Amino acid sequence: MVGGGTGSFFASYHRAAMRLSGRWDLVAGAFSSDMARSVASGSALGVAPDRVYRDADALAEGEAGRPDGARTVAVVTPNALHFEQCKVSLERGLNVICDKPLVNELEEAWTLHELAKRKGVFFGVTFTYPGYPMVREARSRIARGDLGRIKFAYAEYLQEWVAEDPRNLGAKGGSWRSDPNVAGPTGTMADVGTHAQSVLEFLLGTPIEAVSARLSTSTGRAIDDRAILMLRFSEGTEGLIWADQALPGHRNGLRVKVAGETATLEWRQEAPETLWIGTLGGADQILHRGQKDMAPEAMSYVTFPAGVPEGYLEALGILYADFADAVETPDQPGPFEVPDIVYGLRGVALCEAALTSNGKGGAWTPVGIGNRNGTA
Ligand SMILES: NC(=O)c1ccc[n+]([C@@H]2O[C@H](COP(=O)([O-])OP(=O)(O)OC[C@H]3O[C@@H](n4cnc5c(N)ncnc54)[C@H](O)[C@@H]3O)[C@@H](O)[C@H]2O)c1
User: Fold this and answer.
1) Environment class of residue 288 by beta-carbon count within 10 Å: exposed (0-12), middle (13-18) or buried (19+)?
2) 0.90 cut: is pTM over it?
3) Ligand 1 centroid distance, CA of 41 (Å)
4) Is the CB–ligand 1 distance for residue 181 below 6 Å?
C-alpha cells in the first residue's frame, strides 16, 4: 500500500475491504511521505519493519526483488501523487489498484494505460459503486431489456462538506481537495462527478460520448464545487450529471435514475438495499437485495440474507474480490465489468472535456478515449 498512514481517511476502508474479500494480505507499505510516520503506521498495521519503505519507488524495487514480494500495489494518496506512484509500480511489473480520480491529466492516464498493457498487468480503479449488489441487479435488468430502449440516464452526487470551510474539517483530505495543485484542475467534478459517471456507464454499458458542462463554485474556493453536465451517450441516449459538494443538508447523496421506453429504475447510495422500478401505466416495484427475484448473476454477490443490512464496505469488498479474480484469472472475466484503467481514463477524459466545454460557454465537447490523440 502506498499512502494510508495514521490519520488518513480512505485507506482504512481499502484494508477492511481487502479483509472482507478474504483474498488479500497487506505485506508492505510506504504509508506516508514522512518515514517515521510510515514506520509507526506499518507497526500498527502488523507490517514487518523491513517491508516499510520510504516511497513508492523503494517499495516497488524492494518488493520486486523478493521471492515472496507483493504482486499488487494499492495507491491511496492525494490525486497529484497517483501518476508517479502508479508508474514506478507498473515499471516493476506490479499490478496496481489506484483510487479515483486516476490522475489529473489525460496524457498521464494514457501513459499508465500503455504501461499496464505493455507489462501485461492488471490496473484497477476503486470506483466503489459498481460493487453494490443492487447496482449489479440494475445493470442486469437494463441489459436484459426490462426498461425497453434506454432514453435517459441521470446521476446526482450531492454533499455539503464544502459549504463549511473545508480546512476546518480536521481530515487531511479536507484541505487538499480544494487545492488545484493537488486535487487537479477540477474539484467536485473529479472527486464525485467521476463516481456518478462510473455508475451511469456501468449501468448503460456504454460510455459518455459528449458533454455540455458548467463548472462553478458557490463558496469561492479555487476549483469547482458544483458541476452540471448535459450528456450524450451512444444510440441517442441523453443524460445529466449534477455533482455538488456545497449543498447544505446533503451527506453522500448519490442517486441514479435510468429511464427506458417502458420503465424507469432508481438506486440511491443512502438506501442501497433497494431498487425502485416504475412501469408505464403499472404499479411500482421495490426490489430488495437478497430476494429470489434477483438476477442470478447479481445474486451471486449477495453476502447476508435479505434484511440483514449490507453497505459500502461490502461493496468495496466485492470490488476487491473482482480485482483478485482479474489478477489471478484474467482470462475468465466475471459477469460484470470490473472498474479498471479504462474507467479511470474515461473519468479523466470527462473532467478534461467538462473543463473545455465550460471554457467555451457550455459548448458540446467530445469525451472520446478511442485513441491517444483524440476522439473515438
Ligand atoms: N473510492 C472512493 O469512494 C474514495 C473515497 C475517499 C477518497 N478516495 C480517494 O482516495 C485518495 C486518498 O484520499 P484520502 O481522503 O484518504 O486522503 P488523506 O489525505 O486522508 O490520506 C492520504 C494519505 O497519503 C499519505 N501520503 C501523502 N503523501 C505521500 C507520499 N508521498 N508517499 C506515501 N504516502 C503519502 C498521507 O500521509 C495519508 O496517509 C484520493 O485520491 C481520493 O480521491 C476515494
Assistant:
1) middle
2) yes
3) 14
4) no
